[in-house]
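Hi Prof. W.,

I finally got the Gamma-aminobutyric acid receptor subunit pi prediction working! I wasn't sure whether to trim anything, so I left the full sequence exactly as given:
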Amino acid sequence: PGFENLTMGYNKYLRPYFGGEPVQIAMSLDIASISSISESDMDYTATIYLRQRWTDPRLVFHGNKSFTLDARLVELLWVPDTYIVESKRSFLHDVTVGNRLIRLFSNGTILYALRITTTVACNMDLSKYPMDTQTCRLQLESWGYDENDVIFTWLRGNDSVHGIEKLRLSQYTVERYYTLVSKSQQETGSYPQLILQFELRRNVLYFILETYVPSTLLVMLSWVSFWITLDSVPARTCIGVTTVLSMTTLMIGSRSSLSKTNCFIKAIDVYLGICFSFIFGALVEYAVAHYSSSQKYAAKAPQEGPANELTKEMEEVNITNILNSSNTSYERKISFTSIEISSDNINCSDLTMKTHEKIKCVLRNKMHRIIGYFTIQNPSNVDHYSKLLFPLFFMLVNVFYWAYYLYF
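And this is what came out:
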């Protein structure tokens, strides 16, 4: 039969079974390619072959054949108003003609296929980047017809989707995918919805070679300064400053590709921050050790003069005069000299002292005691302990880091 005879009296503005039961629309699709997945824009671009099947009793004809019609004849038929939810940009391919297919079966079944390239939003959680797994969706929904007019179903469940297991992506591997049938509740009604959900796991090997290994080697390079003597100021300062600057450059380079997603504290940012802290800590360690060493040498130098003078004065003291003096005067001299010498432990309980002087005296004693706690007696031990503590602590932090981001 001619197509003109079939469409005689056909109203394309009315759906099949108008005023009666809803139209069953079965869908299947092929994922031809996923060209890009953007973390900065949080979307992906895919080319899909969308196929829709439904039965229109007004197009039933005798025989058991099927006819493939010119795609331009779709303007004469009723077709579903399916659209892609969360699509930012979409277009229908038109080389050399519009990539559409219309196939008509004798029982009135219509196969309508389209080739579409679409950019769809995908909400990403980048807190575990680059060890993250992202879940993206492709949602098909009816725009104007609610569930009283049309019903969406997958043609063969999960087998309705093809091509996604064969995809080869630059940074990702498709872990699994599954199909869902849902409804979208809007203010204007409840609309049928089909969902294709797929999980993408990022390949971390590139980031290990590009970022993790260099940053770890820079931390290990900063430990070299612990084996250089404290007197070699240029060598140790050069290693510390160079490693800090190199680490800063590495951190800036790792963030340049994700400049629009700095609101996330990513796993790679945490690791780079840890490495920077260890490198900066090695530089601070040398500053503390060198300062303590210089203070120790400065404290030894002035003690030599007064010590010699004191011994000379003690030699000039007449022992017989001390023996002849009374016990009381001797005790007063000892108590007086002990107060002068031990300036650290001044007796603040003197009755002749005023209240504000007592407060100042107590605070001075406390400050001397606190400073004494933080005074490094042997600066060379700082390097000795750092050789052991820095690598051990760095290894411990790495164990917690990788265990948390890989298994939690």
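Residues 143 and 292 are 75 Å apart (CA to CA). Does that look reasonable to you?

Thanks,
D.
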